[in-house]
Amino acid sequence: MLFENKVVLVTGGSRGIGKAIALRLAKEGAHLAIVGKTAEPHPKLEGTIHTAAAEIAKVGPGNVLPIQGDIRYEDSIRHIVKTTVDTFGGIDILINNASAINLTATEQTEPKRWDLMHSINVRGTFFMSKECIPHLKKARNPHILNLSPPLNMDPAWFGKHLAYTMSKYGMSMVIFGLAEELKQQRIAANALWPKTTIATAAVQNLLGGDFLIQRSRTPEIVADAAFHILQKPSFECTGNFFIDEDVLTEQGVTDFTKYAVNPDQKLMMDLFV
Prior knowledge:
By secondary structure, the chain is of the alpha/beta class. 42% of the residues lie in helices and 12% in strands. Strands 3-2-1-4-5-6-7 form a seven-stranded parallel beta sheet, sandwiched between helices. Strand 1 (7-11), helix 1 and strand 2 form a beta-alpha-beta unit. Helix 1 runs parallel beside helix 2 (49-57). The longest helix is centred in the middle third of the chain and has 26 residues, at 111-136.
């Protein structure tokens, strides 16, 4: 098992892409710490950290630790990292998946929405990474992987939803900087982004409902891409902005039909691609 006894910390791990990555790595023997705010059932969101942990525990031999946390707050970040290290003895991989989205034009963007996106996407990602670095330095093949897009300076992406674009590019700039800063410590810092929209709660509830879900791929395509990235030597593979389909194509995958929610529908390209 390629990730046997590796300790993987995943933010936003109770559903969607975060849970899919946790499941994929659990199958390969990893120990998982999954972080989320949802500890009790939510009327609009499927699953909790506890139901996700139970599902992940069934697929692999490793242990699973559900942690209720909010990465907007330093005390919560410290609690998340300390609890993970106290339980498993260290951290080998950090997956910065937690994110907030609001695709509004500037005049329609409320301060609380701007603050939420930047507090989670940029600030939370930055300080989660900071808190994990001392532990990643001790790991054999340490990786930080952000779910954020390539830094595409096409003005169209700024004009459509400036606040969200700034926040996601902020996550990507964290990778851009950490890859250089942590090079001497041989800690990899990479980003991964889907080529198409992915069938998640955000797509269902905030973006396009069932219409867009039917034109999306499942989170498993991102999880499979992450699986291949995180195997790579950390001192060689850093500072990259990967696209899920490209990663799998390099691995010899030619048929992506199994990832489509509805193979009869034309896929919708994701933002920033």
